[in-house]
Amino acid sequence: MVGSLLASAVSDPKCAVPDMVAYDEAQAILAAYMQNIPLLTTEFVSISQASGRVLAEDIRAVMPRPEADISAMDGYAFRCADMEKAGSVGLPLAGQIAAGDASPSLEKGVACSILTGARIPAGADCVVAQERTSITDGHVHLLEQNVRNGLNIRRSGEEFCKGDMLLEHGLKLDWRHLSILAHQGKEQVSVYKHPKVCVVANGAEFGATATDCRTELNTQLLAAMLQSEGVRVTRYVCGSDSMEALHKLLHQCAQEADILITTGGISVGQTDHVLHVLCQMGAKCLFRRVKMRPGKPMTVMQLGQKMVFCLPGNPGAAAICAQLFIIPFLRGFAGEKQEKKTSMPIEGQSSFAYVAAADTTSFLPVYSTENKGKNLITLVRSVGASDILCLTQATGLVRVSAGTSLQVGDMCQMIPFTA
Ligand SMILES: Nc1nc2c(c(=O)[nH]1)N[C@H]1C(S)=C(S)[C@@H](COP(=O)(O)OP(=O)(O)OC[C@H]3O[C@@H](n4cnc5c(N)ncnc54)[C@H](O)[C@@H]3O)O[C@H]1N2
Ligand code: MOO
């Protein structure tokens, strides 16, 4: 059976395996593919559950903010002209309005006490803060003469008007947006559904019967990385070198998930079956191997409408490839608009030198520190693509493009890791 699967995969014309591509080309292939895939479907959630979700509707103001003209101070509201006319006699006090009170009209020639947030009574055209006044014999007197029309009045709509665009679809909602939704009286909001991802680790070394048993790390690492992006992750381990077992597991995952991720078994070893099994299942290869370090075996396939990201087994390489390829893809797939990125690169001066190979783009684990307003980017010691400790010391990656070099003191950009 193994032999026949392998033979049919390799001879399958759909499974033409392209040559290794440059890093930027791989990203361009993925971006082009992104344009044509259907986004996730949407659902309504209550706004208390909406933080972290991607908005699937535009929110236009159905009411302005402030809703009415309101006082910005605790003090006294009156007509400027009345106060000017009253001079040192001041204006008699008539009533008090607090936030939440209905606001009657202000009679001519009087002042009323007003609290912050209360509606300005019709007729009043200014508010003076109470500490800038004195009260004698039930009259308000000004301590300073600099009153003017509109003083301390927050006008209706000065923050936004009815009909204004407040939040656009594709926005990942967080605490900053929820008060807007609440203000607009939204109890429920339309968001894109959580993507479902299956992560499948490969390797006989993770099976219960292995003589030289190893601890499987990648599904832990990737599940945590993706869960903090709002993805529902199911983890599987194929702990044998059986193509049939892998075929069965990937078939099951294709039924369950929107996106599949495999780790390991994608290089050129005799037990690296992922490519062959996916080809056998009818998957098309978008790119096979990338001129990058780490992550050379990185491969992306399309199984029906579903994407399959085949990550290298080395945990450091798997993590870096996931950061560079999977996270941006998932954000787009989940409806997030790319131009509203939150994790922008951090620019700083390199404290190290590095020469990238002529045909290979390198991604180096680094951290950034700040000194007198300048960022310094420092390389973290790493012994290779299997490293996991270096990731805990690094806060991001520096790219050194194929055939280029970085000198000490050069400006460079750190791509921060996702949370
Ligand atoms: N002749 C060649 N050999 C290799 C090449 C090559 O181009 N020619 N590429 C090397 C590179 S680069 C990488 S990266 C690895 C990746 O190979 P695979 O993706 O097939 O990964 P495996 O061989 O299955 O595993 C590699 C390594 O990682 C460990 N591993 C795998 N999965 C996990 C996991 N889930 N948790 C923890 N550790 C894992 C595995 O035990 C191996 O030690 O291939 C090179 N070889
Ligand atoms: O490319 Mo591999 O990912 O270096 O070990």
UniProtKB/TrEMBL annotation:
EC number: 2.10.1.1
Cofactor (UniProt): Mg(2+)
GO biological process, one term: Mo-molybdopterin cofactor biosynthetic process
Reaction(s) the record says it catalyses: adenylyl-molybdopterin + molybdate = Mo-molybdopterin + AMP + H(+)
Highest taxon, organism lineage: Bacteria
Pathway in which the depicted protein is active: Cofactor biosynthesis; molybdopterin biosynthesis
GO cellular component, one term: cytosol
MoaB/Mog domain location: 198-332
Pfam families: MoCF_biosynth, MoeA_N
Record SUPFAM superfamilies: MoeA N-terminal region -like, Molybdenum cofactor biosynthesis proteins
Keywords (A to Z) from UniProt: Magnesium, Metal-binding, Molybdenum, Molybdenum cofactor biosynthesis, Transferase
MF terms in GO: metal ion binding; molybdopterin molybdotransferase activity
SMART domains: MoCF_biosynth
Record-linked InterPro entries: MoaB/Mog-like_dom_sf (IPR036425), MoaB/Mog_dom (IPR001453), MoeA-like (IPR038987), MoeA_C_domain_IV_sf (IPR036688), MoeA_linker/N (IPR005110), MoeA_linker/N_sf (IPR036135)
Family, similarity comment: Belongs to the MoeA family.
Protein purpose: Catalyzes the insertion of molybdate into adenylated molybdopterin with the concomitant release of AMP.
Designated name of the protein: Molybdopterin molybdenumtransferase
